[in-house]
TrEMBL record:
InterPro entries: Immunoprotect_excell_Ig-like
Classification of source organism: Archaea, Methanobacteriati, Methanobacteriota, Stenosarchaea group, Halobacteria
Protein name (database record): DUF4352 domain-containing protein
Entries under PROSITE patterns matching the protein: PROKAR_LIPOPROTEIN
Keywords, comma-separated and alphabetical: Signal
Length: 177
């Protein structure tokens, strides 16, 4: 594994429906560090949120529920910056996975692509914004940002976000929940 980023999560905010979302403590010097892909896109994991059970809303009418108190949502915000002088293809959501021990989890934007495609403002609650990647291409010196949403067991204490290309781990971020 080429890169690691450790994030400690603290704080608790109550949300509607008695669900709780936990936000990241970014005082650690390694959190927010930028790593470069092989094709010169800088990627920064700058925000981490978790929510046990409850639901995540895509648009106004498309909730995906945790369906159990044993499931938690992990929401990871990634910022991509093109450091070249030409447009570059963005990594796709299919290139990313979340590892919990030996178990690999696909982002919800891959699992529920048919439900999410075509929704103008995909992620609306508990955080809002576009899903990652927000486009197929990133222009010169352009910055794009978006969220990954995963469901994992609540007993997970550490996860690893991996960018895999050609069956190799290109980048990874380790996050303590």
């Amino acid at each position: 594994m080429k890169r690691r980023l450790y994030a400690g999560l603290v704080g608790m905010t109550m949300l509607s429906g008695c669900s709780a979302i936990t936000g990241g403590d970014f005082s650690n010097d390694e959190v927010g560090q930028t790593y470069s892909t092989d094709d010169s896109i800088d990627l920064t994991l700058d925000q981490v949120e978790t929510q046990q059970g409850g639901r995540v809303w895509f648009g106004e009418e498309s909730p995906i529920t945790g369906q159990s108190d044993r499931i938690q949502f992990v929401l990871l915000h990634l910022v991509a910056t093109n450091t070249t002088e030409s447009a570059i293809a963005m990594p796709s959501a299919d290139d990313f996975s979340l590892m919990v021990g030996d178990s690999q989890h696909d982002p919800l934007q891959v699992k529920y692509a048919e439900l999410i495609d075509g929704i103008e403002s995909p992620l609306t609650d508990p955080v809002s914004g576009p899903l990652f990647p927000p486009g197929d291409e990133i222009g010169p010196d352009e910055e794009l940002a978006g969220w990954f949403v995963f469901t994992i067991p609540t007993n997970a204490s550490t996860v690893v976000l991996e960018l895999r290309r050609n069956d190799d781990i290109e980048l990874d971020w380790s996050v303590t929940l």
